[in-house]
Amino acid sequence: MTPPVTTLAPEEAVQKLKYYQKGTFTVGNRLVAEEQRTVQASQARSNALTCGHRACQGCGEALGARYAIDAAMRATNNNLIAVNATGCLEVFTTPYPESSWQLPWLHSLFGNAAAVATGVAAAMRVKKRPEVRVIAQGGDGGTTDIGFQCLSGMFERNDDVLYICYDNEGYMNTGVQRSSATPPTARTATTPVLGPEPGNVFGTGKSVPKIAVAHNIPYVATATVADLHDLERKVIKAMSIHGARYIQINVPCPLGWGSASHDTIRLARLAVECGLYPIFEAEHGKVTQVRKIRRKVPVQDYLKLQRRFAHLFKGGHEDPRIARLQAICDANIAEYGLVDVTGRDG
Amino acid sequence: MLKQVEGSHAMAEAIALCRPEVICAYPITPQTHIVEGLGELVKEGALVDCEFINVESEFAALSVAIGASAAGARAYTATASQGLLFMAEAVYNASGLGLPIVMTLGNRAIGAPINIWNDHSDAMSMRDAGWLQLFAETNQEAVDLHIQAFKLAEELSMPVMVCVDGFILTHAVERIDIPTQQQVDAYLPPYDPVQVLDPAEPASIGAMVGPEAFTEVRFLAHYKQTLALKLIPEFSAEFAKGFGRETGGLLRSYRAEDADMLVVAMGSVCGTIKDTIDEMRDDGIRIGLVVIVSFRPFPVEALRNALAGAKDVVVVEKSIAVGMGGQLANNVDASLRNLPRPPRLHSSVAGLGGRPITRTSLHHLFRQASVQPWEGTNFLDLNERVVGREIHRTRKTRRSGPTAENILRQLAKSVPPAAE
Amino acid sequence: MEHPFAITLDAGTSLINHTGSWRTLRPEYVHRLPPCNHACPAGEDIQGWLAYAESGDYEAAWRALTENNPLPAVMGRVCYHPCETACNRAVLDSSVGINSVERFLGDLAIKNGWRFAAPPAATGKKVLVVGAGPSGLSAAYHLARLGHGVTIQEAGPAPGGMMRFGIPKYRLPRDVLDAEVRRIEELGVVFNYNAKVANIAEAMAAGGFDAAFLAVGAHIAKRAYIPAGEAAKVLDAVAVLRSMEGEDKPLLGRKVVIYGGGNTALDVARTAKRLGAEEAVIVYRRTRDRMPAHDFEVEEAIEEGVMMKWLSTIRNVEAGSITVEKMALDDKGFPQPTGEFETLQADSVVLALGQDVDLSLLQGVPGLEVRDGVVQVGPNMMTGVAGIFAGGDMVPSERTVTVAVGHGKKAARHIDAWLRGGTYAPAPKHEIAAADKLNTWYYGEAPKTLRPILETARRTSTFEEVVQGLDEGNALYEARRCLSCGNCFECDNCYGVCPDNAVIKLGPGMGFEFNLDYCKGCGICAQECPCGAIQMIPEAI
After folding, report:
1. Domain match, C307 and C398 both
2. What is the ipTM of this complex?
3. A5 lies in some domain
4. Chain A interface disruption, residue of C1, C9, C95, most A CBs within 10 A
5. How many structural domains does chain A have?
6. How crowded is the C-beta side of A201, counted as CA atoms within 13 Å?
7. How far apart are the CA of C60 and the nearest CA of chain A, in angstroms?
8. Which residues of A touch C481 (CB under 8 A)?
């Protein structure tokens, strides 16, 4: 290896001190200032979702929920109430007689979390407790399907609620059925790998983040458990805003996706880096920021770690559906400008 | 203060006097005027410290109320018919969580066929949902029951449904005594929840409960309703003291002292029944009435005592459990059970989908009960010719089309039954 | 708070549910050997001292560094840094500039006058070190720090060995060397110059030494037979470079030919340019890619105007000219004569063909084994004679300053153990933290900082140092590029990524612990550990 030999002008030789060599993407770092570390790095984090919960090994939703709620707890100085839709998160945290939550928490039904949260927020307003803030949370089924009407109502009324959808792309609690957030070709119990179009069919499903943007609410963001800094920044930003807000967090599900429990964050990362899961934020109906792809990967890298896509890799030949999924990634990359054309990732 | 006012508006005024803090509004006939009235009061500033929320469905209406109530606010909503069914899941949830929400039910039939007029099918659909259900006979009682409902709900930490007959009460303009704010404030203390969502004392409300404790949870809900059997008369008596009129309670009797025949009914039809009884009494027939106010909890013991001396009991109700008969009759039957010499029970389903219940028909019904009692369920004023033809036709033709539309077609062709 | 039965639960009550019982794999914090440490011939704990430098605690970094190597300012200039070749950061962007940070620390220590801690109580044992080159200095330093009395006998007039008499000043300024030697002297090491040991056994007996470490280096230039006319000026590289330290600079003429392809050849050629030669031509029988010299030195030499004559052997030297024969590489890559000749102008020819060891001091010592011109030693650096150890260029090994320093340290530890009647057993080495053990996602983009290079005009006319040092800002930046391969650097990832909160953060400097009551064994912590410091092991069920 030839070390490059360059003549540097003295002023160039003195590089600006940057603290990103370590710690940019890690949870914390002993070398960076406290405020540059994540909430999760703190020994004083609230652990709003604490030990002893019954989520599966490597559960992305358990992780995403603690990330989000801890950040919101810090942002509100622990003046936070959470409303939870029925689903995995509810079931694994509150089976009688044990609760894993360490904040006031209310579960009503599968499809009404947004409306219940509206009621809690209204109560706080009428009780003159403006410091107490409200989060509604649920899975993608409880959000994009059965809870969609209440969600839209909460949005259009601009109720003072942050709704967080933990998107694991299916009804996992009931045994992995298809939701309107399930990606094309994915195998679920209701989209089996059978017939001429195995798995979930192309051309179905919906983007609730985009629909949320169309409501012109103050804040919409997508996030991922693979980027904690970005996730926490978005939650904290959302808590600084009043009115209806929506954050959708991609949370891989080892059980439903057929992935190794240790690959949860890795998969979330690959979902972003291949372009399948665009990470962006929007304010008042306009996309304002996009998280660029850092190390672009082909969609195969993401797919092949998951048994729900295993049928795409059988039979020796390249399944044409992979190209169709890649086309979705490419379209996302083009639509959101996920790859910097001038940057090294281009 | 006495006012000539529409029932819905009177109820809105009474509800406002109860200082609700969160009101969830969604339109459905015939309840709509109540929330409209409340909306006006909030908008004009007459009702302060109150969040009036226009929701997108009845399911959301009760859900918002659930959230508000769990967070310590006095929450109110109103619905009817299809709306109640659309919120059914939340109805059970509110009682399961023990949230003292008060909801007005503008009683209306349930489709299909779609029908906006009064009967009690909607209330009956939720009779086992764990709510207290109080039926108003008059608009004055509707006003008074709402005030008592908040007190009951909050004392028991259970939701209460105040059932008022659609149109007959909701849309009737009559003279109603609207209490003063001082009277209501003296009667109804501020809401002091048994538990509340509070960051200072975090708790998890709405746990998943398995076989190991579910029976106990349900027993405790049932137990609360038995407590209500004592509280309802107490609160009614207390109300009488403060407001100067006797309304509410579990049930009340009319000219029942020496009656051989007792009619049992709920809601506004009791007025017509009383008129009929007066007429029959004039004819020397010993007949009386027991008005059920509290359908849930069902006052089994009080009713048994009220009916024990009669030879015949006629239940007139505006609902049908299809395939079984009248729900009220079945419940009355339970209270007659185990009496040493129980009266004969006659069940009549009347006034479905808003059909008028006339004194003429009632005279006929009560006479028939004593001289020519029927088996099973009587359908008051049933057009037997129409149903006979339809039964015949559907037996003949496989693709006979929808029954409701066929009947309408037949009725258009034939003369009204009364003129026959 | 009293709650309604069953429907409402107290906060945080799931702690009674010990989900650790679900586990089939258990995470374990491990230490893996960083490839830089593994590659360092001087046995430095590079990652260890970089960690201090990363926090800006340069004195602690220097002290950690000098635990293993007393010559960081020298090393930061002359080491060929195999650590950087091994560095895992190369897979990400480019290796960490370890050598430049080392030099920064060494220079800072000189500037700030940092001194070594005083040695512990004297053991009463005396050790003779023969030769004040890098190996001897290193051994003397370590032995002194272990409490032994050390005397260095040096044949030359000044300390440093090849560092002084072989490496040109533009690569290693002498004040730097002197400063680092002085610090060793301050530990109480006795230096005797112009004190060549003629016979080791006699010297030990005369001085009452309990042990000896021989590190005389390799100073005798290898000769090759080249027909030469009487007036031809043929010199050897060792002599030329040594004479640079004296009063009289070598007279090489305007056109100088250097014969050989090693680093010494380059040193001579670049020295010749600085002495005013118009032409300095390196004649080498093979091609550039086969040259033993380090590529960056070749590059620097070419920049300075040194010319290269590849695939050529010198056949004849006359006054003012030489005859070279062109060579061609055969199938096996060996150069073969072609019969094609060429004449080059040359005022002098310097032979840089390698060096031999002067083994005269070992004559008459029974039990010493000499093979291929070097002394054979055991794994403990001891020769066949009990109590006589040897290292550096005089034993079989690669001949670099860094290797020599490593020999000195290693020998010192064994000598110490031997003096105490025991044996030294180094701690077992951990598994190497290879690149595939890392999760490099978590490291930010940070290209290497290049050290400023002296302008070419000044390089060819003066002996000023060619490669300049880093300043504090970019030294810190560079230190922080370290990935901390194989060892926890408290990035908090495991603490953050556990879905079960089963990692306990113990606080700054104290690391983490797994809470096995709740750990379900998902393995995310191990997967997302940037530096490969967690492994999953099967749970005994």
Report:
1. no
2. 0.95
3. no
4. C9
5. 1
6. 6
7. 16
8. 21
